[in-house]
Amino acid sequence: MRQLGDVWFSGRFLKFAEYPSNATSNFARVAWFWIAYRYWGVLRSAWFG
C-alpha cells in the first residue's frame, strides 16, 4: 500500500512539475517540491501508517 502511495504521489509530483514553464511558475515549482519533500513522509505515514 505504501509503494502504491509513492507511485501515485510521484505521478502527481511529476505532472505538476512539468505543467508550467515561465519564471513565476518556476518559483511555484520550487515551492511545491520543497513543501512536498518536507511533508510527504509525514502525510504518507499518516495515510498509509
Topology:
Layout: H1 2-18, H2 23-48
Helix pairs in contact: 1-2
Shape: flat
Number of domains: 1
**Succession of helices and strands:** HH
| Poorly predicted segments | none
Q: First CA to last CA: what distance?
A: 9 Å
Number of helices: 2
Biggest beta-sheet profile? none
Explained architecture:
The structure is a single chain. The chain is an all-alpha fold. The chain has one domain. 88% of the residues lie in helices and 0% in strands. The protein contains 2 helices and no strands. The protein has helices spanning 2-18, 23-48. Helix 1 runs antiparallel to helix 2. The longest helix has 26 residues, at 23-48. The chain starts with a helix and ends with a helix.
Features:
single chain; 49 residues; mainly alpha; 88% helix; 0% strand; flat
Question: What is this entry, summarized?
Answer:
The chain is an all-alpha fold and 49 residues long. The protein is built from two helices and no strands.
